[in-house]
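RECORD TYPE: protein structure
NAME: Ribose transport system substrate-binding protein
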Amino acid sequence: MSKTNKPLDLSNALNRRTFLVSIATVAGGAALVACSANNSTNASNNNNNQNTSSSKKYALAVVGGMAGVPFYEMIKKGAEEEAKAQGMDLTYQAPKQWDPVEQTKIVEALIARKVNAIIISPCDNQALVAPLQKAHDAGITVITVDTVLGDGDYANGSVKFPITYIGSDNTKGGKIAGEVMIKAIGGKGKVYIQSNKPGTSSTDQREKGFKEAIAATNGAVTIVSTSYDEGSMDKATQQTSAVLQAHPDIAGIFGTTAFSSEGAAAAVKNANKSNAIKIIHFDSSQQGVTDLRNGIIDFIIGQKPREMGKIGVQYAIKALNGDSSLQKNVQTDFVVIDKTNVDTPESQNAIY
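PREDICTED:
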């Protein structure tokens, strides 16, 4: 599927206070998840005909990035719902910490169990290549959701064995966050990025998109630094607190994950600067929504993890049934949420 999006009219979007961003294609190297136009499709169109019923009963496994994270729990929920509807067995596991070593152990155990398919959010786009290649070589269907392996181009890139990537165009999402930030702080000022861990494709891409948007201001908005909390909210709070002390005139903070955002928000609240610093929270967790309603954060960039899990199961079954026509890249949408639209159906469907 090949469509070209019209340029984002941010003023109109923010005046409406709600918009969905269709991300049906990604051009060339603009995003690590980019694929050729022939190998990418939008999830809303892709789901029009998902008759995946099978006379065979398959053992499916979903592996999240980290236990206890609401985003991955919602991927699990979507996958479980679809597996039940299709009459399939499904298990879910995730490492206790954001740790590719622990996630590799889970993959190895699933190989030993001889599951039919692994639907995984890799903790590291390089470290998980070898263990998942081993799974593929053992005849296990591999699908990635939210994060990718290698450069994410499963048609022409360095890693080709996964059936597909299902998830957001995270570079686009980061760019949206940057454009929202620029508008929110009045087009000038200092901003800070609180992120997860280098090598995690989704957050790497969000950083990239955000920085591209900020660079387009030609110096009117500057990024003072980027810190990495490795999935620890406490560490995010400590890091943000240190940055606030070093740069008391910061105008905005972008958190690339729910934990990063919530940790940063706690630091801002502790410093009594909630009214002075604009915070953009990536991922629409319940805590993020609570912080939004309480005025601690200002915007949420919401994804659709439940849809990712659902489509992941659908694609796994199709692949196991011998369908060789599956798209290599299925992209889901975003919704920008603020106080004025948090209760709309579009926003509520993105909250987990």
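COMMENT: Residues 1-39, 44-49 have pLDDT under 50 and may be disordered.
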